[in-house]
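User: Predict the complex.
Assistant: Input components as received:
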Amino acid sequence: MPLDLLLEAVIFGVLLGCFYAAVSMGLSVSFGLLDVPHVAHPAIMVFGAYCTFLLTRYGLDPIVAGVLLMPPFFLLGMAVYRFYYEAFEKRGGKEAGVRGIAFFFGLALVIEVGLILGFGVDQRMVEAAYIGNSLSIGDMRIPLRFLVAFGVALVLMSALMLYLSKTFTGRAIKAVAQDEPALRLMGANPVRIKQWAFGIATAVAALSGALLIIIGPVEPGLDRVYIGRTFSVVVLAGLGSMTGTLAAGLILGISESIVLMQFGASWAPAVSFGLLLIVLGFRPQGLFGR
Amino acid sequence: MRFWIAAGFALALAAAATVMLKNEYYFFAGYTVLMFVVLATAWNILGGYAGYVNFGTPAFFGLGAYSAAVLFKATAAPLALQLLLAATMSGLLGFAAGMLTLRLRGIFFAIATIALTVIMETLFINWRYAGGATGLQLLRPPPTVPFESYIKMLFVLMALLAVAAVAIARYIERSWIGRGLRAIRDSEEAAECSGVPTLRLKLFACTVSGALMGAAGATMPMYLSFIEPASTFNLNYAIGALASPMIGGTASYLGPVIGAILLSTIQQVVTVTISGEMNVMIVGVMLVVFVVAAPEGILGLFRKFVSSRKP
C-alpha cells in the first residue's frame, strides 16, 4: 500500500474511530461500569437516530435535535433500568444472568421491528448544510459530516469524562462499579445511583443516534452491525475505562479503514468482531482493564 | 419407555402425513417447525443446562448448510453424507469456539458467539467457490424411492433428526453430564471445587450443540435449492433458537420442543396471514413477557397449575 494512501486511511480511521468511541460511550457506562448486559444499546441508538430524523423534518439541525432528545431518553433509560432491576437484579437467583441477556435481546428486537413497522425498511437520512460537502486538503477529501461528528464526539466524550471524575454523582457512579457494598455502607443507595447512570448512558445513546444519522443513512436493522462494534470497543477498552474507550475506538476505526482500503468492503464487518474475539480469547480484561 | 413410544408415534405420524396429505405447503411449513425443534433443543444443551447464552446459532447452522452445499457441488454426494459432513464441521467449530471462549462468562460468551456468526458470514461472502455474496444455485437430484417428492423426503429426514436431537438432549439431561452442566449453571466455582470437570463438560456440550445445529442446517440448501450468506447466517435463527427454550422452559428437554412448536407455528401462521415483520415482533414481545413474568416457561406454569390443583 503506497504511503499517501495509508496516510489517508489513517486520517479517515481516526475520524471514524472517534465516532465509534462516541457511540460506545453509553455502553461503556451501562455495561462497562454497571455490568448490565445491555445488548439493546445499539437498538436504542438507532431509535434515537429515527427520532432525530423526525425532529429534523420540523427544520431542526440534527445535532440540536440530538441534544433535545437527551432529556426524554434520560427518563426512558431510568425507566428501563428500574424495570430491569425489579425483574432481574432484585430477584437475583441462579438464572438471572441468562434471562437478563434474553430480556435485552428481546427488547432490541421489539425496538427494531417497531421501527420497521413505523418507518418501513427503507434507509432514512437527514439534511444539513454540512452533509454532502467535503473539505479538501491537497488531494485528500474529507467529508464535512465526518468532521462534524468528530467534533461532537470529542465534546461528548470530554463532558462525560469530566462528569464522571469531577462531580459528586459521577464519582458515586464510579464507586458503585468498584465496590457496591462499600457504597451502601456509606449510606448511599446504589440502585438510585445506577438508575441515574443508566439514564445518562441512554441520553448519550440518543446523541450518538444523531451522530449515526449524520454519518450516513440509517435503517432499522443497523443495530445488528453496531452490537459488534460497540461491544468490541467497550471490551477492548477494558470495562468502564473512558480513556480506554477512546483508544479502543481509534484502534477499531483505523484497522477498519485500512482493511477497507486494502481488501474491500466485504471484509470490513469482520474487523470489529475479529478484534473482539482476539481480545476476548487472549486478554479478556481489555487494554485498560480495571 | 413412554418417551420412545411418543417418539415412535410422532415419526409414524410424519410418515403417514407424507402418504395422506397432497398439499406440499404443509411439508414446507412442517419442515421449518421441525428445524426449529432441532435448533432449540441443541441450544438448550448449552444454554439451558449449563447457562451459557449462545447467540451463534446461525454460525453453526450456516456452516452446516454450506458444508453440505459445497460437498454437493464438488461431488454430488448423497444427502446422508452431506448431513454427516455438516454435523462434523459444525461440531468441530463448536469445539474450537469452546476452546477459545469457554473461559468467558455470561454476556462475554454471548457476544463472542455473535462475533463468530459475523466472521463466518464474512468468510463465506468472500469464498468464490461457494458462490460468494450472490449465492449458489443447486439442482436437486430426484427423490429416493419410497418418496414421491423431494420435500417430503426432507420433511421425514428432519423429523428423524428432531427425534434424535431430543433423545440426545434427554440422555444428557438424565446422565451425570446433565447434572454436571446444571452444577456449572448454579455455580461454576462450586462445581469445579467439587470435582466436576467443568471445562471438559462445557466443551462436550458446545460440540454436541454445534453438531446438532449443523445437522439442522445440512438440508437447507436442498430445501431451498439455493444458498446465500445473508439469509443463511441470519440472526433470526439465533432468535428462534433462544426464544423457544425461554418460552417453553429451559429445565427439561420438553421445554424447547413445546416452545419451538408453539413459536414457529405462530410464526408460520402470522407470516402468511399478516406480515413477516409482525412475526418477529411477536417473538420479541413473547420473549420479554416470558423472561419477566414466567421465568420457568410454559413447563413451569404447567407444573405450578398442576400442583395448585392438588389438595
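The CA atoms of residues 61 and 213 of chain B lie 5 Å apart.
Let me know if you want any component modeled separately.
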